[in-house]
Amino acid sequence: MTSRTIRFIDLPAQQERIKDKIDAAMQRVLAHGAYILGPEVAELEAKLAAFCGAKHAIGCSNGTDAITLCLLAKGLKPGQAVFCPSFTFAATAEVVALLGGVPYFVDILEDTFNLDPASLKVAIAQAKRDGLPLAGVIAVDLFGQPADYEAIEPIAAAEGMWLLCDAAQGFGATYHDRTVGGIGEMTTTSFFPAKPLGAYGDGGAIFVEDDEMAAVLRSLLVHGQGADKYDNVRIGMTGRLDTLQAAILIEKLAIFADEIVARNRVAAAYDDGLSDVAIVPSVLGGCVSTWAQYTLRAPGRDRGAVLARLKDKGVPTAVYYPKPLHQQTAYRHFPVAGNGLPVSDRVAQDVFSLPMHAYLQPDDQGFIIEQVREALAA
Ligand SMILES: *Cc1c(COP(=O)(O)O)cnc(C)c1O
Predict the structure, then answer these.
(1) How far is the CA of 277 from the centre of ligand 1 (A)?
(2) Fewer CB within 10 Å, N- or C-terminus of the chain?
(3) pTM, rounded to two decimals
(4) Which residues of the chain have pLDDT under 50?
């Protein structure tokens, strides 16, 4: 057998495609020397806003700070409840707790891994009964698929709560006729290198419709500066996006739509090759995922053994996420909807993710599918 190297995410193949453009873009930044808030930041922001149809796109330091900045702009106060899924990356809930808020964990839908509107209603009723002040909802576009915003938006609105879309994994996905970033009053994303649209370091962005909120966010990401930069008008942070990362992202954004198409081709081939041996991910009708992860479920199998076997054959895998947040040490004491989150607990036991990127070659993918089938049959 010929040896092959299969990467979980193939950043070198992407770099090969646009290396000259990235090299030139980086050299331009070195030449003009405006490392902080240089012209590439505004250029990227305009291009991001156009890509998703948002009124304002604001570059920032990473996807976690993007959420923090939104919570600061919304004036989250200690003790206020913010509802969010438990089956997500820690950052979603972390920043709520960091600001003294109460992350209130909600269960997910078994087929999409996204926030369950019925569980959200249960959590809201409980919080009201317990006298917790309500602040907002953070929905997550897990694995690149938009949450069911048409179901979630009215639930948040009925309680006078804001809705934040944590699209760290879902920027560029589509939900009916809307593109993630242009859905809802505020959306955050991450340009962590492994995300569908990744920089060569940390980065993030916030998308908002409201002019006043955009102005507050721009102040917050530079220490709360006012019109006079030595008269700070609010408590803020160092939340800017680096010029160098913006320059790299401009080149990556130019091929992003094409990459989303390629990622969907890869997902469809996995579906075809694996739907009879595992539970393949399902995407809501009228939606297009960015496939931040292609996540299978194999209930009742020894996941550790399956993944060890795949590793032996040279097929990298990952488990997102082995433990929902409400089971983790730092988050265990926060409230959950109902008597627990059975779906989050269940899927955490049997999910695993396969190599997913726009440059996965059909022969390598065929090999992966064959190995997954063998590992599941063993
Ligand atoms: C990656 C991620 C974040 C955090 O993004 P960073 O840029 O790493 O800070 C937040 N939420 C979700 C759902 C993520 O996947």
Answers:
(1) 31
(2) N
(3) 0.97
(4) none
